[in-house]
Amino acid sequence: MALTEVSSNKMFGGYQKVFSHESKEVKCTMKFGIFLPPQAENGKCPILYWLSGLTCTEQNFVTKAGAQRVAAELGFVVVAPDTSPRGCNIEGEEDGWDFGTGAGFYVNATQEKWKTNYRMYSYVTEELPALINANFPVLGDKQGIFGHSMGGHGALICALKNPGKYLSVSAFAPICNPVNCPWGKKAFSGYLGDNQEDWKEYDACCLVKKYNGPPLKILVDQGKADNFLPAGQLLPDNFVTACAEAKMELVMRMQEGYDHSYYFMATFMEDHVRHHAKFLK
Amino acid sequence: MALTEVSSNKMFGGYQKVFSHESKEVKCTMKFGIFLPPQAENGKCPILYWLSGLTCTEQNFVTKAGAQRVAAELGFVVVAPDTSPRGCNIEGEEDGWDFGTGAGFYVNATQEKWKTNYRMYSYVTEELPALINANFPVLGDKQGIFGHSMGGHGALICALKNPGKYLSVSAFAPICNPVNCPWGKKAFSGYLGDNQEDWKEYDACCLVKKYNGPPLKILVDQGKADNFLPAGQLLPDNFVTACAEAKMELVMRMQEGYDHSYYFMATFMEDHVRHHAKFLK
Lengths: 281, 281
Prior knowledge:
alpha/beta; 9-stranded mixed beta sheet; homodimer; globular
């Protein structure tokens, strides 16, 4: 699998790069951002995967989150993929901002129109890590995962569905219970069809109850002034309840006055990277 | 002068806001970003003015520079204006990315087409500070100024033309000697006309030789891999020479491998804010 370097910028002594490649899973050209810390010049580094939210590309995290400073200090490679296939010419893929392009929801679609390309779950858990491990100085057995909103949902399900694969997980304002929120119902019915039992395979509240792997300690930050909280899109209380029932260790921090934006994420990004460092260093 | 709040996002315990207002100097609606640190809730804070480069709006600094974290720690209000008037319907204002819209160059134009609106020098040194001092909890006598590229040029000339007004000044990859570079020649001939003696009133290398005010200590960071360096747009060597002749204290740091982007600026932003703190705290 050949990688094409799209851009490279020195930053905090390391390099923030963007690559493109032809993806076998999603059958189109995909881009990802990768921060290579200065430590990567002399040895292999742990990896953090970041999954972005609705409407994002690989650029939003790279440009706005401010994670590179702490990643450079601690010696993390940080990989930020795009949020969906692009330009697949599927009828309806551009019709909404919360379904189709920019809204892959990190699931493998089963429905006819979408199942060929919309395989973001396999892309982020299998194809992309194999590509990263083969091409960069990383410790493939030291992986953490985190994300925001739709990508927070993605981070939680990737960790919960793959016991032991990710040693650490955290999320900013994640969609915690997609089977019960408007965004999730729209996406899952479109990608996965009408059988709601199938949806549960990609729902953090459902998955945490089935989790049977090494202990995880999940960190979640949620802004109290997030518009999508009263809109019932995020449902963090349901995840608190589900984790309590499952005896999963969860720190859910409700942050007074913060909204759903990258300003919120930049504020607490250092805390999250240091949280991952407890398990990956 | 009424201010309209365009956006407000909590960040690092303070607020990143954007306001719009009707400007008397440039005779159109202008926007600026302002970061209010947590300390601004209980008292008045020193102010840092940030001047952005070609093609930027107030958004670039606010989104990408990562200054708010250190400003929140040290208690600085940070103000980032737009780089030019907008939508004035001047013939030719949209013809190039390096002249007209997004390229005000922080001068007061004297040429017929431009002189009504293109008064960015008076806007950033007089009108905007008066507006900030009247509407926000700031210490109006504790001002610093910094910027990037065209805005680095702006920061240098604002400090050098107004002895004592700005207690501190720094720049990232500034246009140091606009009378001798292609960007400067195009902008100054357009805004100021053919008499090159008039241009010298807005050239850092010329102004530093005339400076006769309180001591300044100027910090400049310049990436060695900046494309605009070999293109002869920035001419930092000329500023080093001019400062040496004028006995102006200058720290010019040539940063190996860094380019002209916000990735470069984010890397050294903390150093610059702490540089200003030496003089403003």
